[in-house]
Amino acid sequence: MASSVIIYFLLLSLSLFSLSCLSAPQTPNTKPHPFILPINKDPSTNLFYTSLGIGTPRKNFNLAIDLAGENLWYNCDTNYNSSSYIPIACGSKQCPDVACIGCNGPFKPGCTNNTCPGTAFNSLAKFIFSGGLGEDILFISQNQVSGLLSSCIDVDGFPSFTGDESPLNGLPKNTNGIIGLSRSNFSLPIQLALKNKLPPKFSLCLPSSNKQGFTNLLVGSVSGDPFKELSKFVQTTPLIVNPVSTGSVSVKGVPSDEYFIDVKAIKIDGNDLNLKPSLLSIDKKGNGGTKISTLIPFTELQSSVYKPFIRDFLKKASDRKLKRVASVAPFEACFDSTSIGNSVPRIDLELQGGVQWTIHERNLMVNVKKNVA
C-alpha cells in the first residue's frame, strides 16, 4: 500500500459536476435535451446500477455505475445478437489502439475480425479484459441514440484459468457490464455531450437504499439548468485533476481520468485529526489525495490516516457512552446499536474554498447484524 492516502466516498443524494475539457459547438437551430437514467442500489453489494437498451432487436441491460470507468461495456454472450452492431475497424479514426483483435466465429457482436480492441476494466475483478469496440443503437429512457462507442464482451467465451475469472466478478448479480462516467473520451457522458451538443456535465443522485425514489443520472442540461438551481441549495467544491494517470492502463504524461476532491482536514466532533498535510495531498507520483468512487461501497482510509482516525473516533464514541462490541468484518469499530441513538461522533471534512462536508449518523454507521452497527 502506498504511503499516501486515498479515500473513497459513497455519495448519497449529492450532485457531482464533471466539467470536461472537451466541448462541442452548438448551432442555433438545434434543440438538445438532457438524458436521464434511473439509478438503483443493489442491497447485497451496496453498489449502484442503471438500465438502458442496446441493439436491434432491443435488449435491456442493467449496468453497474463506475465513476472511474473509461467506457461502456456489456456482456454480449452466446445468445446475444444485434443487426445494428457495427464493429470499429483497426486503423480507423475511431480506433485509438495500434493493436487488432479477431475471432474464429461464428461472427456476431463480440466476435468479429480486424476489430479495434476495447478495454473493459472491472476493478472488482482485478483483471483487464478486452472485447471488440463497436457502435450500436442505445435506448436511454425514451431516447434512441446512435453512433456511440462501447465494448462488447462475450463473457461465456472468455477463457478462465482458475474457473472463477469473469469480467462480471463482484458486480451485482443482475448486472451485465459497467457504464463508465470518467473523464475519458469514451465515457458515456462525454460521448453523449459531444454527439448531442450538450453541456459536458452530469449529476448523480444516489439512493441510500434499494427502494427507488427520486434518484437518477442526469447527463447534460439546457433550459432551467438544474445544476445552477441546485447550487443555490447545496455547497459545492471543485473537482481537482491528478496529474498522473491512475486508470487500468497508466500512460506516462497523461493525467488521471478519475475524480478527486481537495480535502484539507478531517475533524471528529469539531477536533482536527492530527495528520501530516501531505497525507491528504496528491504527490508527484500521483499517490494520495481523495478519490470519489461508486465501486467501493464504504469509505476506505490508508493506514497512516486510518489508525489515528479510529483511535480518536473510539475515544469520542466512549465519551458519548456508545457501547463497543466485537468487530464484524470488514469493520473494526462496532457498537451496540441500542446504545447509539443520535450520539454518533460527527465527522467533518474541510474542503477547498472553506467548504465543510458534514457526514451525519445515517451515513456513518451501517447495520451489520441484529443490534450491531
Question: If you had to describe this structure to a student in words, what would you say it looks like?
Answer:
With 373 residues, this protein is mainly beta. The chain folds into two domains: 18-230, Acid Proteases (Cathepsin D, subunit A, domain 1); 239-364, Cathepsin D, subunit A, domain 1. It contains four helices and 22 strands. Strands 4-5-11-6-10-9 form a six-stranded mixed barrel. The protein starts with 6 loop residues before the first strand and ends in a 9-residue tail after the last helix. Mean pLDDT is 83; it is low at 1-29.
The pLDDT mean sits at 83
Report the span from N to C terminus.
27 Å
Estimated helix fraction: under 10%
Based on CA atoms alone, the radius of gyration comes out at 22 Å
GO molecular function: aspartic-type endopeptidase activity
Signal peptide: 1-23
Domain Peptidase A1: 48-373
Organism: Trifolium pratense
Summarize the helices and strands and which ones pair or pack.
Elements: E1 7-9, E2 35-38, E3 40-41, E4 48-54, E5 59-66, E6 72-75, E7 86-87, E8 117-122, E9 127-140, E10 143-153, E11 177-180, H1 188-196, E12 202-204, E13 216-219, H2 226-230, E14 239-240, E15 260-261, E16 263-268, E17 271-272, E18 290-292, H3 303-319, E19 324-325, E20 334-335, E21 347-351, E22 356-359, H4 361-364
Parallel strand pairs: 1-18, 5-11, 6-10
Antiparallel strand pairs: 2-13, 3-4, 4-5, 4-9, 6-11, 7-9, 8-9, 9-10, 12-13, 14-15, 15-18, 16-17, 16-21, 19-20, 21-22
Organism: Trifolium pratense (Red clover)
Pfam family, one: TAXi_N
InterPro entries: Aspartic_peptidase_A1 (IPR001461), PEPTIDASE_A1 (IPR033121), Peptidase_aspartic_dom_sf (IPR021109), TAXi_C (IPR032799), TAXi_N (IPR032861)
